[in-house]
Write a structure and sequence with these properties.
Layout: H1 2-62, H2 70-88, E1 95-99, E2 105-110, H3 124-133, H4 138-143, E3 145-150, H5 154-163, E4 167-172, H6 174-181, H7 194-198, E5 206-208, H8 213-217, H9 223-228
Parallel strand pairs: 3-4, 4-5
Antiparallel strand pairs: 1-2, 1-3
Helix pairs in contact: 3-5
The structure holds zinc ion (ZN).
Length: about 230
């Protein structure tokens, strides 16, 4: 009787231990699933943040773009005037400025893409963005606007992206510029809107344009045909 009772107690103890082991294993699996779920949520949130950045620039385009303010028009007309100056110096008719949030002009440049002093990478936007980046903090650049007489090409849009300038306001669209330059070997214009380039990045950059397109086109009319004929 005593032996039978002892064996019974032992069997009960073994069953109890095995039962607890099963419960602990199940709890551990649930915890792992929860961790995996949390990681998936975190990855999803990170992914949404990136796609959200893209969506912002795309929605700007879908909504007909953010409108230009009065100060934007003043700054853009200065850039167009500088593009005329650039043409009068024998360079291509493009110019850009980088302007701080308080209206201070941080940098300005025309094109310098022709020999003997320039090279084909020296577009106005790239030169202005580069000059601003060498003298301003990341915070100042994020608050700054690049004004340009024509929409930045893919190279210059990349320069704005990498320097961290927070805003672009352009006059002439790249499509309209392409109509004016054609396949001129000195300026074989891309057919690639800057918003499309920026939509693939992770940094949100506000884009305004085209604005004052006819005024900006004036500097180009006759310029490219004269050179190709
Ligand atoms: Zn460019």
């Amino acid at each position: 009787m005593t032996i039978a009772l002892s064996v019974g107690i032992c069997l009960w103890a073994i069953v109890a231990v095995l039962h607890n082991a099963v419960i602990n294993r199940t709890a551990a699996n649930e915890n792992n699933e929860e961790t995996d779920t949390d990681m998936t949520k975190a990855q999803s949130a990170a992914s949404s943040a990136v796609s959200g950045a893209s969506a912002t620039t795309r929605s700007d385009e879908a909504e007909g773009r953010v409108s230009a303010g009065e100060s934007d028009l003043v700054q853009l007309r200065k850039a167009i005037s500088l593009a005329e100056d650039s043409k009068n110096r024998g360079s291509h008719p493009f110019a850009s400025t980088v302007v701080a949030a308080d209206g201070t002009v941080l940098a300005s440049a025309g094109n310098n893409s022709l020999p003997p002093t320039g090279d084909p990478t020296q577009h106005a936007e790239l030169r202005a963005a580069s000059a601003a980046a060498r003298q301003c903090s990341p915070e100042e650049l994020a608050e700054a606007t690049l004004y340009t007489s024509a929409e930045p090409c893919v190279m210059c849009t990349g320069a704005v992206y990498w320097t961290g300038i927070g805003r672009i306001v352009y006059a002439l669209s790249e499509r309209r510029l392409l109509e004016l330059t054609g396949d001129d070997p000195e300026n074989p214009t891309f057919d690639l809107p800057c918003r499309e380039v920026l939509s693939r990045g992770q940094r949100v950059i506000e884009v305004v344009g085209p604005v004052l397109e006819d005024e900006a086109a004036a500097a180009h009319e006759g310029f490219w045909t004269r050179r190709t004929n």
